[in-house]
């Protein structure tokens, strides 16, 4: 039984993982700074809630982390806490360097000290959750990203995550820390903050707002249902080899436009009383994101062959579950809609984007 410290466990993926780990009967200490992206409402109705300890704090606070590691006899750290949105990193990169680079460094330092003091146990794990964005963009005929793909980050977000991956790897090589890293593709599902494409489209469509498509909408992402991601991380904790990296993906590569059109069709079907149906009429092409990566695709051979994991959800089943979840969780949706940051972010990111005409679009 692992004793887990989860960082960023009040955010989207972190809160899903906390729920997953508690359901597996693992005790979880959850450290989160509750930025705009984190919320205690993401942690409502946890299974085995008596096994969950929430700590409101910052991963850059070394003293706090040392204290938590010792007091709770932690042997496994799963590191989600980050600034995670590319568009925000373009408008304000500094916080990304602080949290993603300095925060990861601080965790590693505290972890190293605790691990050495405990006699360097082999079974301890520092699991670092990273992204496919560290690899940059694929051309139409390039092979998918694998564990050996060269790093070539294009956004400040991706560069800060790349730096944190390098730090984790270096602490393994230099000090012998038993770590694992996973680089996953775009997640979607319950509790995702509606600044990212899929929840943004669902919330905007239900309010009759425009559905903004950056550029020509032909960019390609590999979409991973969040519960599949949690299962993959859990599998890595159980069976992953120390010092190893694993690529995690959803085994699908639709264009952004196809994702948005599918969401509109699902909303037409599942919210038949919506006054804004057919929702596809809300689609608008807007000014593109600078440095926008064109295509991501994931080669999940290693995790499938070595650890026996593969995604359970297809894009169709995952999007259906997701739309249903948002329709069934209106209290959660309303609490986000009231959030000041959500409203000001929409104005900051979208007001200056002009409509773009797209050939054939
Ligand atoms: P998120 O933005 O929803 O949540 C991040 C959480 O970290 C929030 O709860 C926030 O309060 C917390 N946090 C931020 N700064 C902190 C700090 N200094 N100290 C403590 N807590 C802090 O992010 P997410 O989408 O759940 O992503 C989780 C991880 O997965 C990130 O490391 C991200 O880079 C990675 N990832 C996400 C995706 C995706 O599609 N969402 C894809 C690939 C990788
Ligand atoms: P996003 O959800 O922000 O994730 P990431 O940048 O990490 O891939 O964006 C997913 C894709 O959708 C990406 O190609 C950008 C595009 N996108 C839009 O077209 N419109 C939007 O309003 C947003 C937020 C994203």
Cα-to-Cα separation, first versus last residue: 53 Å
H/E series: EHEEHEHHEHEEHEEHEHEHHHH
Question: What is the number of strand segments?
Answer: 11
Q: Indicate the overall shape.
A: globular
| Ligand list | nicotinamide-adenine-dinucleotide, thymidine-5'-diphosphate
Classify the fold: give the CATH topology of the largest domain.
Rossmann fold
Low-confidence spans? none
Rounded to the nearest angstrom, the radius of gyration is 20 Å
CATH architecture of the largest domain: 3-Layer(aba) Sandwich
Instruction: Specify the number of helices.
Output: 12
Determine the mean pLDDT: 97
Strand order of the largest sheet: 3-2-1-4-5-6-10
Q: Please, how many domains?
A: 2
The profile of the biggest β sheet is:
7 strands, parallel
Helix content: 40-55%
Which class do the helix and strand fractions yield?
A: alpha/beta
- State the fourth-level CATH superfamily of the largest domain: NAD(P)-binding Rossmann-like Domain
Report the sheet-strand fraction.
5-15%
The top level CATH class name of the largest domain: Alpha Beta
């Amino acid at each position: 039984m692992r004793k887990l410290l989860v960082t960023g466990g009040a955010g989207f993926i972190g809160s899903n993982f906390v729920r997953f780990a508690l359901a597996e009967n693992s005790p979880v200490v959850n450290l989160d700074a509750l930025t705009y992206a984190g919320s205690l409402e993401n942690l409502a109705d946890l299974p085995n809630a008596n096994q969950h300890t929430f700590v409101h704090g910052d991963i850059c606070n070394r003293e706090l982390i040392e204290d938590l590691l010792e007091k709770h006899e932690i042997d496994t750290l799963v590191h989600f806490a980050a600034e995670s949105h590319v568009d925000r990193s373009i408008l304000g990169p500094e916080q990304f360097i602080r949290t993603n680079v300095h925060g990861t460094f601080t965790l590693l330092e505290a972890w190293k000290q605790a691990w050495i003091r405990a006699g360097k146990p082999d079974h301890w794990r520092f699991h670092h959750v990273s992204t496919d964005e560290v690899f940059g963009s694929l051309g139409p005929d390039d092979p998918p990203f694998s564990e050996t793909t060269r790093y070539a980050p294009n956004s400040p977000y991706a560069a800060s995550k790349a730096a944190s991956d390098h730090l984790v790897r270096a602490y393994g090589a230099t000090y012998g820390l038993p770590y694992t890293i996973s680089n996953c593709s775009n997640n979607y599902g319950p509790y995702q903050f509606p600044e990212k494409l899929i929840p943004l489209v669902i919330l905007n469509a239900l309010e009759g707002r425009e559905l903004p498509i950056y550029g020509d909408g032909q960019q390609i992402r590999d979409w991973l249902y969040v519960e599949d991601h949690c299962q993959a991380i859990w599998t890595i904790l159980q069976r992953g080899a120390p010092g190893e990296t694993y690529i995690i993906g959803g085994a699908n590569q639709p264009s952004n436009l196809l994702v948005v059109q599918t969401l509109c069709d699902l909303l037409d079907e599942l919210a038949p009383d919506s006054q804004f149906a057919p929702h596809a009429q809300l689609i608008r092409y807007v000014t593109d994101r600078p440095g926008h990566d064109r295509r991501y695709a994931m080669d999940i051979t290693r995790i499938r062959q070595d650890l026996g994991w593969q995604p359970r959800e297809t894009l169709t089943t995952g999007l259906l579950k997701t739309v249903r979840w948002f329709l069934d969780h209106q209290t959660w949706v309303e609490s986000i809609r009231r959030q000041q940051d959500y409203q000001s972010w929409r104005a900051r990111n979208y007001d200056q984007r002009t409509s773009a005409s797209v050939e054939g679009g």
